[in-house]
Amino acid sequence: MSHQTVSRVLNDHPNVRVETRARVMAAIDELGYRRNLVARALVTSRSNTLGVVSFDTTLYGPASTIYGIEQAARTAGYFVSIVSLKSLDASSVRDAIEYLAEQGVDGVVVVAPQRSAARALETLPVGMPAVAVEGTHRSEVSAVCIDQIEGARLATRHLLDLGHSTVWHVSGPSDWLEAEGRLEGWRSALEEAGRPVPEPLAGDWSPRAGYAAGKRLASMDEVTAVFAANDQMALGVLRAFTEEGVKVPDEISIVGFDDIPESEFFSPPLTTVRQDFDAVGRHCIEVLLRQIQAQGPISTERLIVPPGFVIRASTAPAP
């Protein structure tokens, strides 16, 4: 049996007879053969490994994004090497990308929701295939992102359509591009409807921040609708309202963002914007592989994934 035949079986070549494939696989099992990926990389100049740079994978969004990327990469036949950073400052992101480049990855995905990380993409190694998640508006770097602005507009319009005169907003951290997009979408929806735009209450994505904002909102008689920039802060708002005797949705409606798995089990179940992280991961890998396989200059792409909207029991017509 020639080494060419064995190679064809290992690489799933279609022109191999069923009987031959079975004999090769039986021999592989008997001998305990394992592929030498280092040797293969030396021959092909490809490691079949993709690098991912991210941080704080305890947050639902980044963790779900990384999971989607990893699953899509494996489906495409690639391994993933992840560098998780304590902070996404430009220097740390550059160092992480350089580290992955030295490991011989075929391309990198940078989950870059903050401005500092987006700036680091300006210094990518020459010729390195790369895709950013959320983090860049530069035409030189490909990006895949969920339409944060439209998601916030969906949330705000929903509350206005229920008859609420305006919508209050608990925003995310100011240095997050996602928080900026959600703030912009909320404000534009109110302005287009000719409604007052209340001063947003700043948060940090945590339930504690939502709780503090909820305590303030519960004391304001004019508040009947709240849009929280993520579900965790919405949970904190709900807890504060409950403690203050404010009934949701009878007295105040609330909408979140993300559709975390727990949101349907909040009390009441949370109306929220859904992000399709599987689609983000799939598109990231598709874009990256087109760059890796390109013959000639790398072209850039920007793909926008539309948000979904899930109506549950936390919203109702204005009182």
TrEMBL record:
InterPro entries cross-referenced by the UniProt entry: HTH_LacI, LacI/GalR-like_sensor, Lambda_DNA-bd_dom_sf, Peripla_BP_I
Domain HTH lacI-type: 1-44
UniProt-recorded name of the protein: DNA-binding LacI/PurR family transcriptional regulator
Superkingdom assignment: Bacteria
The keyword DNA-binding appears for this protein: yes
Keywords (A to Z) from UniProt: DNA-binding, Transcription, Transcription regulation
GO molecular function, one term: DNA-binding transcription factor activity
PROSITE patterns (alphabetical): HTH_LACI_2
